[in-house]
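Attaching the record inline, Q. Sequence:
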Amino acid sequence: MPSETGARSQARSDLSDSAVRAQLDRILGSAVFSRSQQLRRFLTFIVEQTLTGQGHTLKEAVLAHEVYGKGLDFDGGTDPVVRVDARRLRDKLREYYEGRSDPVVISLPKGSYVPVFEANSASPTHTAPQVVLPELQASRPVTNPSRARLVVVAVALVAAVMAVVLAWRALRPADAPAQLLPLASYPGVEGPPALSPDGNLVAFAWSGEVESGPTDIYVKAVGSEALQRLTDTPDSESGPAWSADGQSIAFVRDGSNRHAVLISVGGWSPDGALITFDAAIDGNTDVYVVGTDGGHLHRVTSEASVDGVPSWSADGRWIYFSSTRAGVVPDVWRISRDGGEAIQMTRNGGFEPQESSDGRYLFYLDRYPAGLAIGGTARVMRAPLAGGPAAAVVDGVRPFLWSVTDSGIVFLTREPDSDAIHLYRFSDQRVARVGRLGFRTAGIFRYMTASRNGRWASASKMVRFESDLMRLDNFR
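Structure, as predicted:
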């Protein structure tokens, strides 16, 4: 059994966090790791925990709970999944570095779950290589995978198509109690869900009946068992995002011969004509815009910094994003949808920007809260776009687990045995606890979003090796 005493061993050199994260992007984007979804989660989690000073928490039981969704009664003596995957991860890392001279070496010493980061003396430079954008092309859900490297696809939906997610639904009687109901539970790996604008359909990535392997896009009706598969290729498709009219889905095809890692889709422009996303090409992350027909690709940012987590302004003229171009700590910037000179919106840190639906305010986290560390939180700030100082709105918010609606800010907090749902109301500037999920969101690849009208929300749940989908009726 691997010893956990190595958790406090020296895992860092004088390498910057951004250099280590850039190397992590390279590794995750390689052909060696493209099909190993579970090992990608494992590696991302232990790297982020270590970067944020939480390496001492990387014990077998913690990994079993946060990465694999195991319960508090997990027994490593009878279930060796963490140790087995740690051994597989060491082998994969050695395979990745064979014949390479990357500037940073990430390794996992035997007997420890804490990764070690070292500068590679054999590397000719410690900076990222010149960025060369691989070919992007439009395609239908089922295409010849040998032609696609990195593909963002708009998929037309017919009326009979169904969708999938973990959904909460706000329904009828005001006095009816909230109910958490099963929505879907499948073997294998289920990716973060995306709820359709009307709340009737949910789209998600699923590996099928196997516990690991490439994922495809599926859709399912909220109140039906009817399931439809939208893609069927040897590559992994993930990251579904609905258009505003609910007629199309954008998703990412993760080909084994690509040279880029698509990190996130920013959703669609308000007019439904464009999609913004961030992509790491050979370790350099930038913001891109592409037409919903898959054409008219435009690289919006081109700095050597990390530019990502994009979102649209209410009028569709601007794209907000987080960037390290002004320093190690990311700030919020905005840039025209056509590109050009970016404008710095925050000066003391800013992450995950979201504009209010009336276009008057910019909301954002005041810092990148401890990476993906367990319990890492930040404050939601509000800055008037007409000018004036930013002010703190609500504290204790975790990244990717909050959403701006017309009436307030919905966010999740950790309680002893589950996550709770809270609403910061714009009307009286007070926070109210409006419900509980009955489970914890995953420690990694966590996800929550709410519709602008505040009636619908979705979140992800991990149970053992698979994500199960639930529905909460009468959520308000």
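The CA atoms of residues 46 and 324 lie 22 Å apart. The two ends are 47 Å apart (CA to CA).

More tomorrow.
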